[in-house]
Amino acid sequence: ERFEAWRRDIPIVGDARGLGAMRAVEIVTDPDTLQPDGAATARIVQRAYENGLILVKAGFHGNVLRFLGPLNMSAEQLERGLDILERAILAEVRA
User: Tell me: the pLDDT tens digits for 11-46?
Assistant: First the structure.
């Protein structure tokens, strides 16, 4: 649900996809053209890392954030990780 809300509400999130614990968020320069933004994705990964979340950047253009949390993590750990990721994405919007 949270990934879908990002896709709907945050203009640089061009797509949110996946199944179960394995999810991906595609970062774009414009929601209409869906032009990939690898540089913004790298900055999001760095911000998240600085705040305690390790992410993997993927995709042909390096603009996809991969999220695969361990299946044994607690709901609190999941929420903390998603909070960090959301703040990193929103910081890029404001930049």
Answer: 999 999 998 889 999 999 998 999 999 999 999 999
How far apart are alpha carbons 57 and 55 in whole angstroms? 7
What are the distances in angstroms from CA 85 to CA 21, 32, 33, 52? 15, 23, 24, 10
Q: Look up the pTM and report it.
A: 0.93
Distance CA 52, CA 39 (A): 20
Q: Quick one: how far is CA 66 from the chain centroid?
A: 7
How large is the angle between the packed helices 2-9 and 75-94, nearest 10 degrees?
10
